[in-house]
Amino acid sequence: MGSALIKGFISKGLLKAENVRAFDKDYDRAHRLGVNTEYSAFETVEKSDVVFLCVKPQDLDHVLSEIRDITGTRLVISIAAGITCERIESRLQEARVIRVMPNTPAVIYELAGAYCLGTRATEEDGMLVGKLLNSIGVAYRVPEDLMDAVTGVSGSGPAYIYYIIAAMIDAGIEQGLSEEVAESLVLQTVRGAADMVMLSKKEPSQLIEEVKSPGGTTIEGLKILDKLGVDQAFAKAIDAATKRSKELGMSVDERRMLARAKKASTIRAKAKKTKAKKKTSTKTKSAKVAK
Questions:
Q1: pTM of the prediction?
Q2: Most-buried pick from 9, 174, 273, 286 (CB within 10 A)?
């Protein structure tokens, strides 16, 4: 993701390659970006005014430990899922922190994401980050308590759409289409449907009504989707991703407490289920005796 952001900002003319410094554990990968390549996170931060932390949540604490003595009042922008501004600010005592949730289509300059400001970040900092992100797609400034929801919807969202695409391609092949034809039709259908929603300004429900007709093919397919509860499946998927994002932002102690609570809840649910089965079994035996 860091590579995608660097390439995007440079290609859109917002940054010059000679003014960008990068560090990656894989030195060659960073070097291929055509920017100044450093040998450590410390060196990179030391020579920069604005810092992007494009690391996984589980790696962030290690990076913060390395740079905390050099960061000072620099603007630090983190894309680590679930990690709050407060948590980063507690490690970088003077830094101005902004939290960002991008998504992988940023690679092709089709970003959908959001950002929020920490307590020390200025309005000017927010405007800078907004300008950078909106140059490669769409990004909204939101309150931090909505960042986990953004993660569930647009951060993880591309994978859900890929899932649908793969399922539709497989279904088309099962109906006799070649893989090439099925893939082409599905991809164009998904692109066209997204464009219809964006360009027509109509609600998805209205567009669905325009496609289906009484006794037609579409309504039969929609009946199956409704019967299987596909809408609820997506709601649960986004809820699960949102909750996981919140968990990633927890401290070790908080995660342990959550794990214990989940385990206790599972035990109670199993006990309740077992009790219900015994009760049903007793009723069945009583019925047989009465008979």
A1: 0.82
A2: 9
